[in-house]
Amino acid sequence: EPEVTQTPSHQVTQMGQEVILRCVPISNHLYFYWYRQILGQKVEFLVSFYNNEISEKSEIFDDQFSVERPDGSNFTLKIRSTKLEDSAMYFCASSETTGLNTEAFFGQGTRLTVV
Amino acid sequence: QQPVQSPQAVILREGEDAVINCSSSKALYSVHWYRQKHGEAPVFLMILLKGGEQKGHEKISASFNEKKQQSSLYLTASQLSYSGTYFCGTSNQAGTALIFGKGTTLSVSS
Q1: A34 close to B (CB below 8 A)
Q2: Which residues of chain A make contact with B42, given a CB cutoff of 8 A?
Q3: B1 touches chain A (CB under 8 A)
Q4: Terminal Cα-to-Cα distance of chain A (whole angstroms)
Q5: Are A49 and A67 spatial neighbours (Cβ–Cβ below 8 Å)?
Q6: What is the least distance, in Å, from the CA of A31 to any CA of chain B?
Q7: pLDDT, tens digit, for every residue of B7-41?
Q8: Of B107, B109, B108, B60, which is closest to residue B88 (Cα–Cα)?
Q9: Taking 80 as the threshold, does the pLDDT of residue B52 lie above it?
Q10: In the structure, what pLDDT confidence band is assigned to residue A55 with cuts at 50, 70 and 90?
Q11: What is the spatial distance between Cα A80 and Cα A64, in angstroms, rounded to a whole number?
Q12: Any B CB within 8 A of A60 CB
């Protein structure tokens, strides 16, 4: 069964450093998303991406964050200068069409720890 | 604005039933239900759309009341595997963002 894959599974970084989280969405999916989940809390929407453009972003997704689809398969989330409060599980998801009537498939997540 | 889920937590014995509610102060276009087990990714359960269309697992049932702007997930004859945190997500009109509630933790014991 096709799945969304994320790498690395765990990343530890020092405060102020840049990190890039990588995702390979399901191959025929056109819509991509990043979510984050602080330990024990709800899953929070960060950004959605379609046709090489951001479709929607939340208040959390400020200038420190960026997304890119550098090639035909990868979808990345970059955090330019990490803060302690960026520590969370980051989930990538993808869907065939818009999320109104299509399920999003989530990857297993990257646990980011900022020290 | 995030949907509001209730209750926050449910404790059941195997075979018992539960209802998890999700309500929104904004108009609902679709409601998505996911279950997340500890340390794992959320897994899709069901989508409910305006007009009554539903997509999802046959063993899961849910309702969508457009007028009341709420959805309910019905878990009947619960099994141990039902344990986890259930999130409802509401979509914006374009379907470009899915905003989740805080979740309802379900614990099923034998």
Answers
A1: no
A2: 43, 91, 106
A3: no
A4: 36
A5: yes
A6: 8
A7: 999 999 999 999 999 999 888 889 999 999 988 99
A8: B60
A9: no
A10: very high
A11: 5
A12: no
Tokens found for residue A48: 């959605």
Q: What is the pLDDT at residue A110?
A: 97
Indicate the DSSP class of residue A101.
S
Measure the CA–CA gap between A79 and A36, rounded to whole angstroms: 12
Binned at pLDDT 50, 70 and 90, residue B58 comes out as low
From the list A45, A91, A108, the residue facing B97 with the nearest CB is A45
* B103 and chain A in contact, CB less than 8 A: yes
* Mean pLDDT taken over chain B: 90
Which of B 43-102 lie inside 8 A of A, CB atoms? 43-44, 47, 49, 53, 55-56, 87, 91-102
Residue B8 tokens read as 């926050």
Share in percent of chain B as helix, strand, coil (round to 5): 5, 55, 45
Q: Is A102 on the interface with B (CB under 8 A)?
A: yes
Mean pLDDT of A43-58: 94
Location of structure tokens 């404790």: B11
Distance from CA of B23 to the nearest CA of A (A): 16
Cα-based distances in Å from B41 to A6, A54, A63, B22, B28: 11, 23, 26, 20, 25
Phi then psi dihedrals of residue A33, to 5 deg: -140, 150
